[in-house]
Amino acid sequence: MDYGRRNTKKYSFRCSDLKELRKLSSFVLDPLNFKQHHVKLLSIFSADVVEGLLSVLVQFYDPIYSCFTFSYYQLMPMLEEYAYRLGIAVSSRVPFSGLEEIPRSHLIAEALHLKKSEIEAHWVKKGGLFGFPSDFLIKEATGFSQASSVDTFESIFVLLIYGLSLFPNIDDFVDVNAIRLFLVGNPVPTLLGDMYFSLHLRNSKGGGTIVCCIPLLHKWFISHFPQTLAFMEKKQCLRWSQRLMSLTNDHIVWYDPSLSSLEIIDCYGELSNVPNIGTQGRINNNPALARRQLGKGRPELGPRICVALEAYTLWVKKRALELKMPYPCERPMSMVVVEPLTLPNQDVEVLEDALAKMKQEKDMWEERFRALSKKHEELQLESKDKDALIELLEDRVTKRQREPKCNPKGFLSRRIPLNTLQTGARRVARGGFPPYLQVGQENCDRHWKLIEFITKMSKVHSSSTS
Q1: What pTM, to 2 d.p., does this model score?
Q2: What's the number of domains the chain is made of?
Q3: Are residues 395 and 333 in the same domain?
Q4: By the 8 A CB rule, do 304 and 219 touch?
Q5: Of 58, 280, 376, 449, which sits most exposed with the smallest number of CB within 10 A?
Q6: Residue 429 lies in domain
Q7: Mean pLDDT along residues 421-442
């Protein structure tokens, strides 16, 4: 079917520099504990946004129904989906209205575990709003992480996520609205309101900069993409506009079973339009159009199925015909035949250089591994030799302790006859040692003392016999 063509509009997106924020994420000492308190915030600001995808998506925005109208279907971000992607339940607290008073310095200091004087010293005005320069908060968070002050670090880190990723407004600045939302702890309705209001405003102006949480919008959109290999393989061969125009009802992932336990908000009292209030303004949308994305959740809507009735499908096609499409129609995705991708020679050379570099690095690490393994084996052998030497020395010490000690008393206790002693003394005098004195040859002084003792005893014996 030919839906006609309408002109595309030039959009851009406010994206804060999150490089320093990603560095701070490496200081999270206990990621599991952090996720329990702040669940999926890390995955939101650390997600890679596919270049060009959202620029194509916003071309399909339908200002009358505040949704994205394609050739065969409609999609719209819903409160329940945003809450699930963030891991933050929609609180029963009153959501952000923009009428809240500016938080007092002692309340901010208490929430961030900082001194009141520090809060007041860095509370400045930029772009018509009060807030904190991001470099001040980054410096404080870095300091407290190095000091292992976990509570203070995480509080400042989460505020930076609110100000730079969830509610980006002014570059390198966390404004008072982000601080209010951080203190209230109910950001989901405001995130949805920011997206709808900014997109609707830029659409009415014919283009411009869309200010909302871009990573969250991107995460929501790709969750409805076909989860098939065929779709992913065409990623490098077809432009995003061609890929989206080739999708039909059957290709879209409509319903996530994880949302089955959530309470659906698809009306405001008796009104089908639900107001969404963001930090910049308010806009209504009609969630009833997206019940299919939640499996027709309410009991009165019937069982949870994602099949569109024929009347609804015809109505969507009629609306697409009225709105016209921003890109030419494409054959359904399953019928598209893609030519093989041929890389330019320059790209091949770059890949070959990268491959050669990786091989060099691989060889270097293997060589280091072999050297360390050899060193390990040498140390093991040296350790075994030392163990054997220690065991040998211990055996010698044990044997030495068991041997009888040689001393004069022990020597005389053998009752050697006196004439034998005298004969031995004469032999010593001539320069030799009898067999029973051989044990002391290593100590000449000791031997001469023994000789003197034998001579003395000989004289005593002679006098006693006479």
Answers
A1: 0.67
A2: 3
A3: no
A4: no
A5: 376
A6: 408-465
A7: 53
